[in-house]
Amino acid sequence: MVLVKGKSTLLSIVTGHFEPDCGKILIHNKDMSVNSKEARSLLGYCPQHNLLFDNLTVYEHLVLFSSLKENFNSNEIDEMLEFINLTDKKHVLAKNLSGGMKRKLSVAIAFIGDSKVIVLDEPCMDPQSRHLTWNLLKKFKKDKKCTIFMTTHFMDEAEYLGDRIAIMSK
């Protein structure tokens, strides 16, 4: 059991930014507080707000975040570009992408580098790209062998995307 004030604190504990008050976080049997580097290499994270570098291209973002996991694979990057329908935007700077494309890139970054556990903090914030992101996550869920831990304020989204649902309330 972890005593938390809210979802942001819970996500910070799951991703290893905060220590739990009690218990432990295991990522594929790697204790986050003991083997944090190894556990984090198996973890993909998409924050609530896009954290993209304006002067990096779509491709450069995927290379950068893949290399942070010491798991660079140019084939995986090309497959990811195709998977998220951004192959034609490969050399476009992040600052020139639409909001929906930026969100797709942020979600893809979480999955790059053979992530085994994906933490998504409200990945479908933009109502216009919400259903596109839903379809993308359904596709990831079907094709990738990983666990997806996602927060949302929308019950319909949780029901559509989730296999198991937990509700946090005051």
TrEMBL record:
Coiled-coil region list: none
Transmembrane segments: none
UniProt xrefs under Pfam families: ABC_tran
This protein's GO CC annotations: membrane
Keywords from the named record: Repeat, Transport
Ranges where the ABC transporter domain occurs: 6-124
Protein name: ABC transporter domain-containing protein
